[in-house]
Amino acid sequence: MFRIGRVLKGYLFWTHDRGSFHYDVMVTLILLFVLAGPRFIDFKDQPAERLPHPTSVEITSIGDNRFICLVDASAVDAQDEGMVRTNLLRLIRPISGEVAIVKTEAVRDQAGHVVAYRAEVKR
Questions:
Q1: What gap in Å lies between CA 57 and CA 120, rounded to an integer?
Q2: 50 Cβ contact partners less than 8 Å away, ≥ 6 residues apart
Q3: CA-CA distance, 122 to 102, in Å (whole number)?
Q4: Could you give the angle at the alpha carbon of 83 between the alpha carbons of 77 and 87, nearest 5°?
Q5: Confidence at 120, pLDDT banded by 50, 70, 90
Q6: What is the pLDDT of residue 82?
Q7: What is the per-residue pLDDT for 45?
Q8: How far, CA to CA in Å, does 26 sit from each of 6, 31, 37, 41?
Q9: Taking the CA atoms of the chain, what radius of gyration do you get in angstroms?
Q10: Residue 76: pLDDT above 60?
Q11: So where are the chain's domains?
C-alpha cells in the first residue's frame, strides 16, 4: 500500500525520472487527453459570435454603376463636409469596393437634427 501511495504522489508532483516507465505513462496520459479529449469531452468552447457593426448602411443601385448609400449619422463623426466625405468612404468602401462620392446630403428629422447621410457614389 505504501508503494502505491508513493507512485501516485510521484504522478501528482511529477517526480519520476525522465525515461522511466512511470514518466512515460504520465506523458502518454497527457497526450491522450490533449489529442483525444476534445472528441469525447464537451468543453463548451465555441468561437466568439461576430455581431454586425451596429451602424446601418443601406445601398441602393440606381444604374450605370451608381449607388445611393444611406448611412446612419452616428457612424459618421464629422464637423465639416470634408470629414463627412472621408468617413462616408471609410464606411462604404468595405461594402461596395472602390467608389467615388458624387454628391452628399444630410437627412434631417422634423426637429432639424441630422439623422443620416445620403451619398451618391460611382464606381
A1: 13
A2: none
A3: 7
A4: 60
A5: very high
A6: 84
A7: 77
A8: 15, 9, 15, 19
A9: 31
A10: yes
A11: 2-40, 57-122
Spell out the alpha helix ranges (H) of 41-70. none
Amino acid identity at 79: Q
67 close to 59: Cβ distance less than 8 angstroms: yes
Q: Which of 119, 115, 108, 114 is nearest to 62 (CA)?
A: 119
Closest listed residue to residue 76, CA positions, set 66, 89, 95, 67: 89
- Closest to 79 (Cα-Cα) out of 118, 119, 103, 106: 106
Which segments of 1-123 does DSSP mark as H helices, in order?
2-13, 21-40, 81-96
User: 84-115, pLDDT tens digit by residue?
Assistant: 888 888 888 888 888 888 999 989 999 989 88
Cell of 108: 434631417
CA angle 20, 25, 29 (to 5 degrees): 150
Average pLDDT over residues 8-20: 88
How distant, in Å, are the alpha carbons of 3, 11, 31, 106 from that of 22? 13, 8, 14, 75
Give backbone dihedrals phi and psi of 95, rounded to 5 degrees, phi first: -90, -45
